[in-house]
Amino acid sequence: MPRQFFVGGNFKLNPTSRAQKQALVKVLNDADLDLNTEIVISPPSIYLIPLKEIVRKEIKVAAQNCYYKDNGAFTGEISAGQLADAGIPYVILGHSERRTLFHETSEEVAQKTKAAVAAGLSVILCVGETLQERESGATTKVVSEQLDAVVKAIKEEDWAKVVIAYEPVWAIGTGKVATSAQAQETHLAIREYLTKAVSPKVAEDTRIIYGGSVNAGNCKELSLQPDVDGFLVGGASLKPEFVDIINAKKVKAKV
Ligand code: PGA
């Protein structure tokens, strides 16, 4: 079975009002979207439930984080089980902003991934290297180490619930997109890693999406790479051009 193309919108700590959230949803609800692509949008947690209620049913909703404990004295956290109970199907885990600004380790990301799949959620698992790591030739090593922790924590069948987002840190929010050759090279390295560390089937079936300054202008070329199965989009997911990114794979009708 070919891997279904996947486009996620990571709104991060945006938008800043309920009215703006409604305007973003209206653009998507009114758009002509390629429904062969799986579409997931990820607003701040306070907007998850109201957004899910107004967005068209073909678009799924993702949390931007969750905790690995089910309940208890963990002020400020949301559990995977609570997300599942609220009907939220996806969660983004291990985003570089969480790893860097909030000091999440790969082990914590792995525990969260384990808790999320156990609760029945699907996970957008983010990995990626810094510029210094890329320039020192350590990209594959860094990404493999980030994935190693998850490989140890979950079972082979759990990978059916995981989409890997390769997001080079130097490309996130910088306007500096990886070339399609750089993206393809690392995506292939991740697939080779999965073949050895998990199984050839998981390597073949797991979607590996690219994130980092994706926009309407560069998405088409990136989407043509054989191991690029979609995108995780930050800044451009808040703009009307997000529709063009969702439609990157759309075959234009012949006139
Ligand atoms: P960007 O963010 O598209 O603004 O670079 C991507 C991400 O952080 O997921």
TrEMBL record:
CDD domains named in the record: TIM
InterPro entries, A to Z: Aldolase_TIM, TIM_sf, TrioseP_Isoase_bac/euk, Triosephosphate_isomerase, Triosephosphate_isomerase_AS
A Pfam family of this chain: TIM
Top-rank taxon, per record: Eukaryota
EC number: 5.3.1.1
Pathway(s) served: Carbohydrate biosynthesis; gluconeogenesis; Carbohydrate degradation; glycolysis; D-glyceraldehyde 3-phosphate from glycerone phosphate: step 1/1
An MF annotation (GO) of this entry: triose-phosphate isomerase activity
Catalytic activity: D-glyceraldehyde 3-phosphate = dihydroxyacetone phosphate
Annotated keywords: Gluconeogenesis, Glycolysis, Isomerase
GO CC annotations, alphabetized: cytosol
Keyword Ribonucleoprotein annotated: no
Listed GO biological process terms: gluconeogenesis; glyceraldehyde-3-phosphate biosynthetic process; glycerol catabolic process; glycolytic process
HAMAP family associated with the record: TIM_B
Quaternary context: Homodimer.
Family: Belongs to the triosephosphate isomerase family.
NCBIfam families per UniProt: tim (TIGR00419)
Protein's recorded name: Triosephosphate isomerase
Gene: TPI1
